[in-house]
Amino acid sequence: MGLKFVSLLLALTVTSDAYAGGLRMQAGWPLPIAQQYLPETLSQQEACKDVGKQPDGSYQFLSDCPGRSLSPDGRFALVQKIQGDNQLPVEFQDAQGRTLVKLPSLTDDMPYAATWSPNSRWIMVNHHVGSFMDELQLFEVIGHSAVERSRLVKSAARLATRRYPCLPRDMVLPNGVRWSRDSRRIILVTVSAPYSCTIFGRRKGGTWHSLLMIGDVATGRIEPGSVRVQPDNKPFETPKDDVYSAF
User: Fold this and answer.
1) What is the pLDDT of residues 6-60, one digit of tens each?
2) What is the 3-state secondary structure (H, E, C) of the chain?
3) Is the full-model pTM beyond 0.90?
């Protein structure tokens, strides 16, 4: 995600949005693919007005709205449908609208926002988990499928708990910020609830801060020289040094 999303996230007021979809038919024939994922009614159009492509390149989804996020090369799409008030399993489709695989880990009626890598081989998802918090999920496009990869998410959480021992692992939520131009790495930030150490801490009374870092999506490796402490009283800004020059 970009600066706007993460700034809100670090203030613990982020809601990335999930977007669901439904197939529309006209005179017995499917509408063009781009029109199949439009809200059906005026009330649904109003409820779904904030979903879709965002200025930072992400695509925000809402659980009760149809939606389709196309890959930069036009070959694949992340698609959400609805049936009445129910969210159907999120689908990974080809350009012709054929379902290649379903993604159950995204199908939980919670908001999420997806950002394709520039080369269309990865999808970075910030998935809302409640309490104004999101968690990163990464999907690798392999052949005609999308496979979830967790190495980088685990590496970022492990780094945060080592830096701040009071943090329980399940209270550390990595979030994606931005893709590198070569699609190999992302900027990510770790976020936790304000009470993570005081109430749920492994060591009561400790403190923590959000950590900004660069990680390799394929290997899960965090670049040691990229780790930065995000001050609580300053807005989020991407560092300007050489380590971050590829973003």
Assistant:
1) 444 444 333 333 323 322 222 223 334 444 444 555 566 787 888 899 999 999 9
2) CCHHHHHHHHCCCCCCCECCCCCCEECCEECCHHHCCCCCCHHHHHHCCCCEECCCCCEEECCCCCEEEECCCCCEEEEECEECCEECCCEEEECCCCEEEECHHHCCCCCEEEEECCCCCEEEEEEEEECCEEEEEEEEEECCEEEEECHHHHHHHHHHHHHCCCCCHHHCEEEEEEECCCCCEEEEEEECCCCCCCCCCCCCCCCCCEEEEEEECCCCCECHHHCEEECCCCCCCCCCCHHHCCC
3) no
What stretches in the chain show pLDDT beneath 70? 1-44, 202-205
pLDDT at 235: 81
Q: Determine the structural domain holding residue 107 and report its residue range.
A: 3-244
The number of distinct structural domains making up the chain is 1
